[in-house]
Amino acid sequence: LCNVDNKIEEKPLKRIGNCLGTAWFTHANQCLKAAQDCGLYEKCGALRSEYVLACTKPIPGTSRCSQYKCHRALRRFLERVPEEYSLGVLFCPCTNTLCGERRRKTIVPSCSYQDAEGLQPNCLHQQSFCRRDDLCRSRLADFLSNCQPSTLTASGCLKDSTGLCLRAYAGLIGTIMTPNYISNSSADVSLWCNCEGSGNQWQECLKLQRLFTHNSCLRESPNLQQNQAQCERPSAEADWGSRRQKQT
Amino acid sequence: MTTFLKVLVLLFCIAKGEGHWLRSLIVRTRRSAPDSQCSLRSILLQVRDLGLGYNSDETVLFKYCSGTCPRARSNHDLTLSNLLLSGLLPHPTPGELWHNTPCCRPTHYEDIAFLDNSHRWHKVEKLSAAGCSCVD
After folding, report:
1. Which CATH code of 1.10.220.110, 1.20.1250.20, 3.40.605.10, 3.30.1360.40 fits the domain covering A30-224?
2. Does residue B37 belong to the interface with chain A, where contact is any CB pair within 8 Å?
3. What part of B 69-128 touches A (C-beta under 8 Å)?
4. Where do the TGF-beta family profile domain residues begin and end (chain B) (predicted)?
5. Residue pLDDT, tens place only, B13-31
6. Does residue B23 lie in a domain region?
7. Which residues of chain B are within 8 Å of residue A29 when distances are taken between CB atoms?
8. Which CATH number do you get for residue B25?
9. pTM across the whole model
10. Which sequence spans correspond to the domains of chain A?
């Protein structure tokens, strides 16, 4: 019996990916291109498939997904995949609705963002649930700190760094306070919550909502530019790294 | 001068196969195995090219196993080959292929997921090979 020890060396094929994108498509859909670049880098493709599977698989006996598992897999994706790929897929720039719709669907919002019955919690309630969870609390704190808008700085951010804000926003994805794009024709984002039943905390609730819907710091965050490096002619077959052979 | 002669003799032995242990040492230090051996290969494809009927522009890295397996002959394999050669067993018809050597097959698989052109997520279970081995 012979066995081949499979040590697959991962080669980020980003450069080749960009070339394939250039060769086959006219960049009309930046989000598609970002997805393709992700697919070329094995780690990104594999973890992306993992979260999609986690977010589309129904709980046995029901037709609903497991939001808990979906969120966990989303967090894994964002934590383990290099930013150039993960943030590229989340924040791809769009000029048409096809691109916008793909961008909106990236985090499988039917599971990770929306509620199964379509009900929205109160934003302040959502925030207090978040604060009770260690991870969500820290991610929220990062977001509030790094995405604090300011009218005095050029970047629109108090911390004068839009990169930090983008990362902090991405940190919320996969938590109780997961935000998402709300339309395929704009880059507007929002939490899945409303301010009904806020009582005398109405203003506070609106303020929280507006941190997502009307945030100059978040809006000014740069969309990641893909590197248009030199193009090599991509080979149809790529042999994966070195393999050690054991003989029994 | 004597060192030079010794080296020459050593090289001669290696060439002849007498220095078997030396040759195996040299072979071990060479890095990669020849390409034709059973190993994991990959090809970049568009999802539509997979032939499964999906309408998506996304690309996937499809991995598969191919290559030759060393002929680790069990008694069964040896006998089967002998019988084939001697004609005691009829040659298999094109439809019923059988093997008399181990073959290169995946040991486990990976699922993939992608968004189709109608913006629906799809998953295909066990699409790609995740590891290869020569199975008996």
Report:
1. 1.10.220.110
2. yes
3. 69-70, 72, 102, 107, 110-115, 119, 121, 123
4. 28-135
5. 555 544 455 444 444 444 4
6. yes
7. 57
8. 2.10.90.10
9. 0.72
10. 30-224
Q: What is the largest CA-CA distance in chain B?
A: 79
Report yes or no: A14 and A86 within 8 Å, Cβ to Cβ.
no
Q: B123 to chain A: which residues are within 8 Å by CB?
A: 49, 52-53, 56
In a domain? residue B53: yes
User: Residues of B with CB below 8 A from A2's CB?
Assistant: 38, 69-70, 72, 102, 133-134
What is the pairing mode between strands A244-246 and A3-5? antiparallel
Q: Do B123 and A25 touch (CB under 8 A)?
A: no
Give B-chain residues touching A245 at CB under 8 angstroms: 33, 37
Query: pLDDT digits over B41-67, tens only?
Result: 999 888 999 999 999 989 888 999 999
Instruction: Assess if residue B87 is contained within a domain.
Output: no
- Residue A247 binned pLDDT confidence (cut-offs 50, 70, 90): very low
